[in-house]
Amino acid sequence: MVSAGIDVGAETVKVVILNGDKIVGRSIVRGGLDRSKSSDEAMDEALKSAGLSRGDVERTVATGIGRKEVEFATAVATEIAADARGVTILFPSVRTIIDVGAEEARGIKTDGTGKVTDFAKNEKCAAGVGSFVGSMARALEIQLEDMGPLSLESDKEIPMNVTCVVFAESEVVSLIHAKVPKPDIARAIHGAIATRTTSMVRRVGIEKEVVFIGGVAKNPGVVESLKRHLGVDFLIPEEPQMVGAMGAAIIAATAN
Amino acid sequence: MLANYGYSDGSGTYYITLDTDKCDGCRDCVTACPQQMFLVEPDDYDDDKAVIKEAMRKDVKYLCAPCKPTAGPRELPCETACTPRAIVHSW
Amino acid sequence: MAEQKPEFWRWHEYTWRDEGKNWKDYEKITAGVDIGSVSSKAAIMVDGELYSYSLFRTGSSSPDSAHKAIQGCLDGTGMTLDDIKFIVGTGYGRVNVPFAHKTVTEIACHARGANSMNAGVRTILDMGGQDCKAILCDENGKVQQFLMNDKCAAGTGRGMEVVSDLLSVPIGDIGPLSLGVDREPPPVSSTCVVFAKTEAVGLLREGFNVAEVLAAYCAAMAHRVVTLIQRVGVKKEFAITGGISKNAGVVKRIEKELGVEAVEIAPDAQLAGAIGAANFAKDLLAKQMARAAG
Ligand code: SF4
Ligand code: SF4
């Protein structure tokens, strides 16, 4: 049976297509303002990579912030449920999931069967989620992908008042004027995300093994910072941003 | 006076309310809080009253997170320590 | 200050003095000095009546700004700093008024001042460039409940500036433009300024015009501060102070949502903190004199 999972996030749309339990197609496209249109694009691209067409897909489960706008979905799943299912397949030993996306961050506890036992969220405030790093990269006038590597060049703790993205933007500008090296600023920014994530995850409790997923897990600066703050090591899948779509596809495959 | 320390942002509203009419300045909260968020100092009328340290007011959601596990009964060290019940958390 | 554009609203420096009074005829001369992040204010009172006041830009050093503000009140009067019997300092953050006899919190001074300038004011909403305060006081201007929000840019002048930049509309035009719309789009749903920006761009794409997007944002901002002020409780009379009080697009929508009309604080709401501080100084001086008299 062919099933699909689509994760409509704040910045990107991800699709995973399964044939039985094998991944046969995938895609990741930048989301536009019209989420229904970006969903179509992502789905078509994934189908193309699988050499399939719409009619071949038996069930599609949508997840993510825009999950209700996917017209071709047969069912929807919350991000939390999708994360838990996806992680359980990838790393069956994991009990704690940290997911930091563009507009939302979550700490999830699972029982090892893919069932969620507890969770905590950070949402609707850009400070503490992925889009914060994006805004700060713009304020620093560097590419988003360069933020992580750049911050790793620094080993300084500079104090920064990063409680609001808007105020932090002006603070970054004045730090630049004060000739504070950009790596130090980048490190402070990642540190801020990491402290916020850590305190959120502590609410659900940290139980081994721990996995870090979501687009922000691709940023080595945040990963380093989070390791320092959390005090435990964690796993990172090869494609941390695809886990939600993967979980949704598994839910589609196993639904009856 | 009800003094609300904390903030409200896109994610929600997080205030710690200190009732200065009830607070007797005993400092029990100062000892109880694991994050050392309280301070007892003279207010505008020269009475000793508890306040949340200024530098911590914009971070209460994160600082208090370890005291507020998602599961299990909720018992905040500060609220419990305060005999006159002058401390109330809004979240 | 971290701000590139700290001034959210245009205003100018000035001083004022009651020419009809000779300070030498009075016994209790007190002053209040309010050092804000943007402007520094001072007021002198003689036996509890306003004698002079001044308003200046805050410089890089707060002691210097404090001296400048009080000097503005003294110039041309023949009065010197030593003639003032009691001075109270107040302001943003760690206040540094070297010649003050005592420091009082800005919340207490703001409420006291607004209440004394417009007797009867019980609820005060102060919307500044970087923060927002809601205060409820009793009939004597004593604070009963307050809350402050200086963490989040939503509901502050800074948040409005972001929108003004995004839509290239001068900050002073936002109010009138937002009130001139034929249809009100639904308010922007994100509180967060960062996400509201994305939403605003989406509204433009959907075919709403700039004025309508401004209306949607002003409505969202109004709703946000209304939820804050409702936490402390709204009692008539109600006053709005701070930079955004000059934005009718927000003020009108707050009034509508609360069902209460805001009253004016004359001569200038910006002076509330300094005048409140001078009032505190008057009380403290009376206490001191009573103690000295035994
Ligand atoms: S909840 Fe915990 S950390 Fe927060 S103020 Fe109370 S005792 Fe302190
Ligand atoms: S404006 Fe700043 S503090 Fe407010 S919700 Fe957005 S990022 Fe958070």
Describe this structure in words.
The complex is a heterotrimer of chains A (256), B (91) and C (294). With 256 residues, chain A is an alpha/beta fold. Chain A has helices at 35-50, 79-90, 130-140, 144-151, 165-177, 182-204, 220-230, 243-254; strands at 2-8, 12-19, 22-30, 59-63, 75-76, 96-100, 104-110, 116-123, 210-213. Chain A has 8 helices and 9 strands. Chain A has a 5-stranded mixed beta sheet. Chain B is of the alpha+beta class. Chain B has one domain: Alpha-Beta Plaits. Helix content of chain B is 15%, strand content 32%. Chain B is built from 3 helices and 5 strands; from the N terminus they run E-E-H-E-E-H-H-E. By secondary structure, chain C is an alpha/beta fold. Chain C folds into 2 domains: 14-118 and 270-289, Nucleotidyltransferase, domain 5, CATH 3.30.420.40; 123-263, 2-Layer Sandwich (Nucleotidyltransferase, domain 5). Helices cover 38% and strands 20% of the residues of chain C. Chain C has helices at 62-74, 106-117, 157-167, 174-179, 193-205, 210-232, 248-258, 272-293; strands at 14-17, 29-35, 39-46, 49-57, 86-91, 102-103, 123-127, 132-137, 143-149, 238-241, 262-263. In chain C, the strands form 2 sheets. Chain C has a 6-stranded mixed beta sheet. Chain C is elongated, with a radius of gyration of 20 Å. Chains in contact: A-B, A-C, B-C. The A-B interface holds A 118-120, 122-128, 161, 163-164, 195-196, 199-200, 202-205 and B 7, 9-12, 58-59, 62-63, 65-66, 68-71. Strand 1 of chain B pairs parallel with strand 9 (143-149) of chain C. The complex binds iron/sulfur cluster (SF4) (2 copies). One iron/sulfur cluster (SF4) sits between chains C (151-154, 191-194) and A (125-127, 164-166). One iron/sulfur cluster sits between chains C (151-154, 191-194) and A (125-127, 164-166).
